[in-house]
Amino acid sequence: MTGSVWKALAEDNRRQILLLLREHDMFPSELAKHFDTTLAAVSTNLRILKDADLIKETREGQKKRYSINPKKTLEIKEFFDKMWGHNLEGLKEFVESKE
Amino acid sequence: MTGSVWKALAEDNRRQILLLLREHDMFPSELAKHFDTTLAAVSTNLRILKDADLIKETREGQKKRYSINPKKTLEIKEFFDKMWGHNLEGLKEFVESKE
DNA sequence: TAAATATTTAAATAGTTCTTTAATTATCAT
DNA sequence: ATGATAATTAAAGAACTATTTAAATATTTA
């Protein structure tokens, strides 16, 4: 059931969906306006993101509201840490530039 | 020429190669021992990682030494920041625990 | 219950990716 | 140059992905 986070992130439109949902929750029909594809294609991508636990859905009347799932970032974060977490100079710099 | 970093990271064996190379540089034949595939398959994955600028190669006699490219992490880092960079608490904590 | 709206799922297809074996290129040592 | 070693590339096929149109499901409203 739980799909690969990495495969989910590997596609441009899906990463774009995530960035859009980070701005604010949206319905599929609303999201579809931002893309040059069909609603059906967006719906499929939403399913893939949901299977990877990157987003959540909640029914709201006849609509379905999609939102970022703030939890399940773990797998990608873990790889990121293992891979590049050591390079503390740059990371520390980045963190501090935000403070 | 430059392939997608995300597609490159989307495959298990390739992420494994990156983690192995992070330990220390390796030759293709050496890497292949860690996998249940052919040398040709490893070689293809190395090309994909190189096209994504995630690794570097340097010839060393008849062999080719592969190593992590510490630079080009930018694209994935940028997305990571945009998407989850807000959660600075955890990131900062991690950085400081290493100091 | 029937019509309207919102979204998902199915079927089909085109395109991409991964893996394998076999052939090829490159370097080194004699 | 020849033979040996190291690695890449080519060709072929299987497996997977993404997109589309059309049909199906779920919910609301009349």
Commentary on this structure:
The structure is a homodimer of 99-residue chains. Chain A has helices at residues 5-9, 12-23, 28-32, 39-51, 74-84, 88-97, and strands at residues 55-60, 63-68. Chain A has 99 residues and is an alpha+beta fold. The first copy, chain A, has a domain at 5-70: Arc Repressor Mutant, subunit A. In chain A, a hairpin with a 2-residue loop joins β1 and β2. In chain A, α2 (12-23) packs across α4. The N and C termini of chain A lie far apart (39 Å). Chain B binds a DNA duplex (30 and 30 nucleotides) through residues 7, 11, 13, 27-29, 37-48, 59, 61-64.
Kindly summarize this structure in a few lines.
The structure is a homodimer. The first copy, chain A, has about 100 residues and is α+β, with helices and mostly antiparallel strands.
Tell me the series of helices and strands of chain A, N- to C-terminal: HHHHEEHH
Structure classification of chain A: alpha+beta
Average residue-wise pLDDT of chain A: 85
Strand content of chain A: 5-15%
How many separate helices of chain A? 6
Question: What is the multimeric organization of the chains shown?
Answer: homodimer
* CATH-assigned fold name of the domain at 5-70 in chain A: Arc Repressor Mutant, subunit A
N-to-C CA distance of chain A = 39 Å
The Cα radius of gyration of chain A reads 16 Å
Largest interface: A-B, 30 and 29 residues
